[in-house]
């Protein structure tokens, strides 16, 4: 301790104090790097539906197929989209259809009929407010003609003005060679 006493100690103490104050000033005045502002692009409902890759992420159950079909349908009738997105949605929904159903109508005729249907729906000021497919336990599966089939229902809540009407639709799906259930057809079920 005697080494730092007297003038020599005071000089060292002052020097250390200056170092500490200088380092503090350096840290305080140092400019922080500007944080990059990253704009997160929010996808529209149409873009979200179109982003699903059915080659690698095909709906695993009949219920999920009908659910995805309903999401696409909701986009057709409720959302705004470009003509290109309409064609992409039509292509996406046709991937859910059984080959026999697709063979009944070529793509151009399908899109023309779809546009007419959407126009009629919109002219009546209708929207799909919600949909509810059958629960998993209510899906009826059976075998017929060497194919695995599934039958289920989906209730669509159609809003027209301030009135909401339930539309009960029965779907029939057939399993293809890849093991995917494809929509073979559907029909409206009349209320008794």
Number of strands: 5
| Level-1 CATH class name | Alpha Beta
List unreliable stretches of 5+ residues.
Answer: none
Helix fraction by DSSP (H/I, runs of at least 4): 40-55%
Number of domains: 1
- What's the overall average pLDDT, rounded? 88
Largest sheet: 5 strands, antiparallel
Strand content: 25-35%
Tally of DSSP helical segments = 6
N-to-C order of helices and strands: HHHHHHEEEEE
CATH fold-level name: Nuclear Transport Factor 2, Chain: A
Q: Using the alpha-carbon principal axes, give the shape.
A: elongated
- Mind telling me the C-alpha Rg? 32 Å
Name the CATH homologous superfamily. NTF2-like, domain 1
Structural class: alpha+beta
* Second-tier CATH architecture: Roll
Ends distance:
103 Å
């Amino acid at each position: 301790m005697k080494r730092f006493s007297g003038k020599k100690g005071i000089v060292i103490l002052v020097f250390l104090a200056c170092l500490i104050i200088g380092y503090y000033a350096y840290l305080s005045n140092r400019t922080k790097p500007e944080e990059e502002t990253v704009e997160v692009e929010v996808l529209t409902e149409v873009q979200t539906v179109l982003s699903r890759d059915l080659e690698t992420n095909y709906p695993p159950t009949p219920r999920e197929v009908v659910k995805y079909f309903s999401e696409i349908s909701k986009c057709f009738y409720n959302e705004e989209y470009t003509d290109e997105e309409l064609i992409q949605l039509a292509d996406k929904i046709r991937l859910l259809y059984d080959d026999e159903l697709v063979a009944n109508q070529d793509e151009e005729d399908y899109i023309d009929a779809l546009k007419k249907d959407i126009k009629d729906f919109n002219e009546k000021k209708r929207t799909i407010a919600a949909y509810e497919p059958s629960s998993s336990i209510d899906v009826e599966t059976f075998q017929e003609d060497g194919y695995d089939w599934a039958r289920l229902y989906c209730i669509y809540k159609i809003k027209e003005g301030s009135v909401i009407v339930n539309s009960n639709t029965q779907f029939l799906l057939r399993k293809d060679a890849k093991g995917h259930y494809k929509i073979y057809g559907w029909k409206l079920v009349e209320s008794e």
